[in-house]
Design brief:
It contains twelve helices and six strands. By secondary structure, it is an alpha/beta fold. Strands 3-4-5-6 form a four-stranded parallel sheet, with helices on both faces. Strands 1-2 form a two-stranded antiparallel sheet. The chain starts with a helix and ends with a helix.
Length: 300
């Protein structure tokens, strides 16, 4: 479907689930780091993505399984309802934002946090784990890298974005909710809705986040230190073989330099799937996360 057809589609305005959070707000971070920066919160998101990108996972973990889990989602600086300061962003600084947010919520106990980060969010999650390894119960790094060999322009057009982050087979398959012709049309509708939010989705925010991702660099020594302190059995790395945003070798390198499967790191390579695994393989994704949480809770 073309953009104009999607905008006229009767289900266009229904791609975002109406999930009522128990707590919603904004908090000031970076007060002593050229701030303050207001972070809106209600998993860690990637470049150019709003916190509602986790809506299907929040529906499952936060609502259907709400007696077992408490979910925190938020907009990184530069996106959505959070502030968009024009400054040099880094994954280290963005991890400090995250740390300030969880401290604000009082989540400060040892092994309390099950951290999930995708793409740029996975880079931020690495930095967070290095800062507070004793508070990490489990660390799930999805479609991300220790450092990038090359980068992708943030100004890629809609078709290019779909092709880069989602596998062609999933894009062409019928919409799993039966409202649009294909999964690709549903994704395009969600992306168009995001782009209509001219205050939340800005070139400045995307540009600053892209710089943070491009400059992210964790050496083998830093990853080994991270794994030593968090615990390798608490870490899992997921990557799709059809990921054209952050290519599969990045995931292989990340898993290996964290210690590899022989030392207890879980590595899951998903055949034929792209960058956004929580869209393409929702049921598998939720099962993998639950399994890691249950495993981590049994570790000392």
């Amino acid at each position: 479907m073309k953009a104009e057809e999607i905008l006229r589609h009767p289900h266009f305005g229904r791609t975002t689930l109406q999930l009522e959070p128990r707590i919603k707000g904004k908090t000031d971070v970076a007060k002593d780091r050229n701030g303050p920066v207001h972070i809106a919160y209600e998993f860690i998101m990637g470049i150019g993505t709003f916190k509602i990108g986790w809506q299907r996972q929040v529906q499952y973990f936060g609502h259907e399984q709400g007696s077992k889990y408490t979910c925190l989602i938020y907009d990184n600086r530069g996106m959505g309802e959070s502030d968009k300061p024009l400054a040099r962003y880094s994954t280290s600084e963005m991890a400090k934002d995250t740390l300030a947010l969880v401290n604000h919520l009082g989540w400060t106990s040892p092994r309390q946090l099950h951290v999930l980060g995708v793409s740029l969010g996975g880079m931020i999650a690495q930095e967070l784990a290095l800062k507070i390894p004793e508070r990490i119960a489990s660390l799930t790094l999805v479609s991300t890298a220790a450092r990038l060999v090359n980068t992708v322009s943030p100004d890629a057009q809609l078709d290019d974005i779909k092709g880069r982050i989602l596998s062609q087979s999933w894009l062409e398959a019928p919409d799993e909710y039966g409202e649009f012709p294909t999964n690709g049309d549903r994704f395009a509708a969600m992306d168009l809705a995001k782009r209509q939010d001219l205050k939340g989705f800005t070139r400045k925010g995307i540009f600053c986040q892209a710089i943070a991702a491009a400059w992210h660099h964790k050496s083998p020594e830093q990853l080994s230190q991270l794994a030593d302190k968090v615990g390798r059995q608490r870490i899992q790395v997921l990557h799709g073989t059809a990921d054209r945003m952050i290519s599969p070798p990045h995931g292989e390198t990340l898993a290996r330099e964290l210690g590899g499967e022989g030392e207890g790191v879980t590595k899951i390579i998903v055949e034929g799937r792209g960058h956004v695994l929580h869209y393409e393989e929702r049921a598998m994704y939720q099962e993998v996360l639950e399994s890691m949480v249950e495993k981590a809770e049994k570790l000392e």
